[in-house]
Amino acid sequence: MNTSETRKSGRPGASRGLAGQRKVGRASAGERNPGRSAGERSAGRGGAARRSAGQRGTQRPGRASAPSCAKGALGRYGEDLAARRLREAGMAILERNWRCAEGEIDIIARDADAVVICEVKSRRASPFQHPMESLPPMKTARLRRLAARWLSECWVARYGRPPTGGVRIDLVGVVLPDRGAPVVQHVRGVG
User: Fold this and answer.
1) Residue 3 in domain
2) Residue 96: which domain range?
3) pTM of the prediction?
4) How far apart are CA 169 and CA 143, in angstroms?
5) Positive or negative, the Cα torsion across 169, 120, 135, 186?
6) Beta carbons of 182 and 131 less than 8 angstroms apart
């Protein structure tokens, strides 16, 4: 109970309203502090600090997204280089990063009458696995399924028939050395 309310009105729990009318009973939380949300009112003092610490959840300050950001930037840079290489080879880029529930196709291009489904693998120079070695049979099978879905949803829906030149799966490997220009390799018809 607020002692200032008791002195003003003489009764505990009574307060004065807008026009000087006496209101009996406890003031609601919204009337006492209208700028606070219901969650802040129920949390009491320091509730915002506790809630913001709790909202962090599993994130660790300083380390949460640094590796994924660097990996994403490397992938985007590799895809940009691959798209440039495909354009230089005379292909037209139809789509980039096409997504569906089953996965993603990095680049979809058109080479004369053929549709090219292009997988891009980007790596920093290391003695381990070269990007051209990183397309296992399961990945090529998934790329075939994605290609069939893209053809049915996008190509056939627009043109009414499959491409006359067929569909081809290509692989573009991008190696970024410590010094010097990136090395871009394009292999046609890998799957």
Assistant:
1) no
2) 78-187
3) 0.61
4) 8
5) positive
6) no
74/47 Cα distance (integer angstroms): 41
91 plus 125 within the same structural domain: yes
Query: Do residues 108 and 150 make contact, with C-beta atoms less than 8 angstroms apart?
Result: yes
Distance CA 172, CA 86 (A): 9
Q: What's the number of domains the chain is made of?
A: 2
Write the burial class of residue 88 (CB in 10 Å: 0-12 exposed, 13-18 middle, 19+ buried): exposed
| Cα angle 109, 112, 113; round to 5 | 90
> Each residue of 94-130: pLDDT tens digit?
999 999 999 999 999 999 999 999 999 888 877 666 6
| Residue 172 falls inside a structural domain | yes
Q: What is the Cα–Cα distance from 121 to 75, expressed in whole angstroms?
A: 8
Residue 60 within a domain: no
